[in-house]
Structures are given as C-alpha cells and as structure tokens.
Write a structure and sequence with these properties.
The protein has 605 residues and is mainly beta. Among the domains are: 66 residues, no CATH class; 141 residues, no CATH class; 51 residues; 56 residues, no CATH class; 69 residues, Wheat Germ Agglutinin (Isolectin 2), domain 1 (2-Layer Sandwich), CATH 3.30.60. Helices cover 10% and strands 29% of the residues. The chain is built from twelve helices and 46 strands. It starts with a strand and ends in a 6-residue tail after the last helix.
C-alpha cells in the first residue's frame, strides 16, 4: 500500500503523497526533472518547496553500477546516494553534466553518477495534449521534435512509445492563456491545430510570421477573432497579463467585488466621473457621509449593501437614493477589449422614478435597476432614452462591465479561464445547466469547459433565513460527498440536480438551489422598496416588492395569478393589500413596458 505520509533521509520534514493530474511546474529535488502530473511527494510544511517523484523517493540508497564496477581483478565499489553533491564542481561520470541534486557517490575514488544515469526510473505523467496514453520520461537528454511546439529541442522529453509522440518538459507547461502586444485579445492554447478545424477555422496562418501552422502541432488562437499563431512565435512575444483574480470570494456583502480600482483605470477613456451626471439626473444634490448605520441599505448604482464612504440624498426624508463613493467615481466612458475598438460604454442611470426602469444585462442576462454602461458605436449619442422604460440591447451592468478577462476558479483550478462569448466554442457549461441566449462565459479552451459570467462571481458562502449556518457553494465534482440524489431544496422543496452547483450546510445537511438564495437569485440585481402611483389604484402609491417570500396573489389589474414563493417582482399596496404585476403597473400608467417584462411575467432562475 502506498504510504500517504513518510519521512525521507534527504529532508527534515515529513512528506505527503499526491497523485493529482495537475501539472506541477516544480522540479524534483532528486532527478531535476519537472514533476508535472507524475505521482509525487511534497513537503508537509506549506512554505517548504521540496518535491520528489514517487519513483525518485524509492531510489536505492546503495548502488553497484556497470560504469564503476571493478578496480582490479575482483574489487567492486558501492555508490552511496547523497542528498546533494559533495562540492559545486561534481560532474556525472556518465553524461558529464554538472550535478545539482541527488548524486550517487563513490567514497573511495570520488566517482559520481546522476540518478537519471545511475538507476532505471519509471517516471510517468498524464498530459492533456495526449490523453490516450500515459507518457514516460526519457532519462537522457535527446534532440527530438516536440509535438507541442513543432520545433526540435535538445533536452528532456516525455514520450508515448505507442504513438511515437514526444513533448519537451518545458512545453508541457505552456501557459493556457497569453497576452501579446500585437493583438487586443488574449490567445488560448490548443494542443492540436486539428481541433480548430472542428470549429470551422480553416485559416491557420500565423499572426507573427505569416506561415501556415501544421495540423499535428499545437498553436495559439484568439477565440474572439480566430487569429492563430505558432507556439514559438507566441511565447517569444508574450507580455505580462498581470495578476489573476481567484474566485469565488467569501461573502457577497462588500463592494467592489469583481470591480477593482486597477480594472477601472485600465478601461477608463477619460477622468470624468458619474456623480455629477447622476446628481443632475436624480434632481437632488448628494452629500458624502461616513455614517455606518445604513449598512442594511442598498446602493442605487451597484445594488450592493451600502458601506462608507457613500453619498446620500440631501432630501433624505422623501428619498432613499444612496451611492457608494466608488460608484460615484466610476468613469463616464470605457473602452472594453471584448467589444470592437470603436465601441464605447457610457454610464446611464436606469432608475426611472428611482426604481422602476429595469434593464437586462447584455453579458449575464440578469435584471437590474442600477446604473450600467451602454455600448454603442463611436459617435455622440444621448445616453438617456427619450422614452421611459426603454433599455438598450447592449446595456451592461457594472459588475459585468468591469469583470476581468482572465480568472482562476475553484471549480476548475487546473487551468485559467478566459471571458468569451459562449457561442464561439462548443463548451460544456458546468455551473447551472441553463441555456442562455446571449451570455458570456469564462472558458477553458483545453478542457472545453465553461461557466457563466454570473455563476463565476457567486460567493463561496451565503446566508439564508432557513439555516443558521453559512451555506457553502458546492460544485458538481464535490457533490457526492454531501448530497444524495433525492435531496430537496429547503426553500422551494423541489429536487436539486447534483450535477450542477448549489449551496449546502454540512452541519444541518440542508441544501438550496442557487436561484433560491435572495442574494444570488434572478432578481438579486434589483433594488426594491421604491413607490409609484398608478391609475388603477389611485388611493395609495404602490411599492416594488420581491415575491420570493410572499404567497401567491391575484393581480388587481388583469386578474391573473402573481406567483408566490418564486423569484419575481410585483407592486403592492400595504394599506389595501392590493397587488398587481409590474408590467400591469406600466400598462395602467400608459408607459412602455421594459423589454424584460415583455419576455416573461416573472422569472425563475
């Protein structure tokens, strides 16, 4: 049986066994080859970088080798395994190279052998470039054609003898996503150009050298423009892509979340800020405050809980308009790399009478009554619609407008993910199973794996009034630990499909759909509580409410049912207990119904 933890003479700390298929870039402290996905031991101390291939951990401590077998007629010398060379100038007696790691050493005559030359080693890896078979390390340097980059290398290779496939150990660690000066979008790695032909990409001319890529070798490709480039040409033009955001975050109770000051500065076209325009549109002046007592209130821009510093309305007694200072400082115009360079985004408040002008985000498909960016052609446009209730087909909410292009996500931690339009690749959407008509996804070109942009920013933990403990986001890969096939959602009492994400409390063994959590449901981007007057109920103003926590009601305008205990919106008079659909409120007022209301009356995420 394999020891999960053991000691080793070459290291002072215990070692832990690992056989993950993740490609580990570190070198083995015994043989010097990269660990990659070979089974290995690593130091149990987090800050200690000591690695051993499983095969290298079993090297014999004493060795008789034919290179150093006899001195005189009968005498044989035994070689002892040492954790490091006796001095800095030790060279292997077989290959002549300088020894830097473990060595076999003859104490009588100072003969030295590198472990790769001294003892047969069976170091095997699994690599996604060749999923059919495991590949074996060639323990001697060789001049071979690498099937990843298409070039000859002198060095150490991993080989599949059945298929005559070789990959250089450095090419096994090529970055999945790269940024180059010569192209506005990130380039994604494909391990075979033939895979692009499945996507009907026939032009394999290299962006840099202009020569055609061969189908049997790897290449880089832009998933937005279908530009392709040789591996070697791309790596020689790479630039730093900057820090990669790791998701999910812990709690969705702070702002900014995905938005960072750095990201805002990257996309801003000018220094103009949104506060003055919003203040003019809102009609009341805004006052900056550090008051922390309004923590349960919601920002009118980002629809997140308010936190100081923030602006509140000078007419507080009659208006609940609040604005994070961060949101007030957002640039009026941005230029985003996922849109054509001529496209600009401009801040556009969608708060008709404070609450009732909804828009559907062009990136994530969720509904919002905060502020967003309108992406239009590069020309002067009025960022406010002349007609109340009309929203642009290219409105984008704040979180999506500033979402990073590259992320790492716990649900797929072996590779970085790139933000693209989901229709460009036949990728399996692994988060919620919903088919969305125009969503952007974070995509792994290597694994053909994707998650929706709104699912990517789901918090790691949330709260729900039905459970006193934090609920943890649970992915399909880990569901079997917590979840039975016949488990029900505690809120809606419907089945939970364990192949998709959900929230779970391990202490109470309770689970919830993502759509049934108020902070992550379909209407989590809407600020509720605003009032409006409608002709069909002129006695009192009606309040915009969420129907997630109320029972079904009858609409006082059309007599249809307003479905309760589902995530939807409605208008309610608390004095008369009068209810109407939101779109009926628009129709009663003679206003044009916003496009989300035209699509469906209420939305179940």
């Amino acid at each position: 049986m394999m020891e999960r933890e053991k000691g080793h003479f070459a290291h002072e700390h215990p070692l832990i066994f690992n056989e993950s298929e993740e490609q580990i870039p570190h070198c083995c402290n015994a043989c010097g080859l990269r660990v990659l996905s070979s089974p290995y031991y690593l130091c149990a101390i987090q800050d200690c970088s000591f690695y051993l291939h499983q095969a290298c951990s079993q090297l014999p401590h004493k060795l008789l080798h034919y290179f150093h077998g006899k001195h005189g007629p009968v005498k044989k010398h035994t070689l002892d395994l040492l954790a490091k060379p006796r001095d800095d100038n030790c060279r292997c007696g077989a290959c002549g190279k300088l020894c830097k790691n473990f060595t076999y050493h003859c104490t009588e005559c100072e003969f030295v052998l590198h472990p790769l030359c001294g003892s047969p080693l069976d170091i095997q890896i699994k690599h996604i470039s060749h999923p059919q078979h495991p590949m074996v390390a060639l323990c001697n340097e060789a001049l071979l054609l690498c099937h990843m980059c298409g070039r000859e290398h002198m060095g150490y290779f991993f080989s599949c003898h059945q298929c005559h496939f070789w990959i250089h150990q450095d090419c096994a660690l090529l970055p999945i996503l790269v940024k180059v000066e010569e192209h506005p979008h990130h380039l994604s790695l494909f391990y075979s150009a033939a895979a692009l032909l499945d996507l009907y990409i026939n032009d394999l001319k290299c962006l840099f050298c202009g020569e055609m890529a061969l189908k049997r070798f790897g290449l880089y490709c832009c998933l937005m423009c279908w530009v392709t480039a040789h591996v070697d040409c791309t790596t020689s033009h790479m630039k730093d892509s900057g820090a990669v955001l790791h998701l999910p975050t812990m709690l969705d109770d702070t702002f900014p979340s995905l938005i960072t000051s750095t990201r805002v500065k990257e996309l801003a076209i000018n220094e103009s800020h949104s506060k003055d325009m919003l203040e003019k549109y809102h009609a009341h002046s805004l006052v900056l405050t550090e008051d922390s007592t309004a923590h349960e209130s919601i920002c009118n821009a980002c629809i997140k809980p308010i936190s100081p510093p923030y602006y509140n309305c000078s007419a507080q007694s009659e208006c609940n308009f609040l604005l994070h200072k961060f949101c007030a400082d957002l640039p009026l115009s941005i230029k985003h790399p996922l849109f054509h360079e001529s496209y600009l985004g401009s801040v556009a408040s969608t708060s008709w009478d404070g609450f009732f002008r909804l828009f559907e985000c062009y990136r994530c498909g969720k509904y919002n009554n905060g502020i967003g960016y309108k992406f239009r052609g590069e020309r002067d446009v009025d960022i406010y619609s002349d007609e109340v209730g009309i929203s642009s087909a290219e409105d984008v909410d704040i979180d999506c407008a500033f979402a990073p292009i590259i992320i790492k996500h716990d649900s797929h931690d072996q590779h970085s993910l790139i933000l693209i339009y989901y229709t460009v690749c036949d990728a399996r959407v692994s988060c919620c199973g919903k088919i969305k008509t125009y969503d952007y996804t974070y995509h792994c070109s290597v694994c053909k794996w994707a998650i929706h942009i709104d699912c990517a920013r789901l918090p790691k933990t949330v709260t729900h009034k039905f459970d006193k403990h934090p609920l943890t986001l649970t992915y399909a890969s880990s569901n079997s630990q917590h979840h039975s096939d016949d488990h029900l959602c505690e809120f809606c009492e419907e089945d939970i499909d364990p192949t998709y994400w959900f929230y779970h409390c391990t202490e109470c063994d309770q689970s919830f759909h993502v759509k049934c959590i108020p902070s992550t449901g379909e209407y989590s981007g809407i600020k509720f509580g605003g009032t409006m007057k409608v002709p069909c109920h002129s006695d009192h103003p009606l309040t915009l409410v969420r129907t997630m926590s109320v029972c079904s009601q009858t609409c006082g305008y059309c007599d249809d049912i307003i479905q309760g205990f589902e995530d939807g919106v409605a208008l309610h008079c608390a004095d008369c207990d009068f209810w109407i659909h939101l779109d009926c409120g628009y129709q009663s007022s003679g206003a044009i119904v916003p496009s989300p209301m035209k699509l469906k009356r209420f939305f179940v995420g």
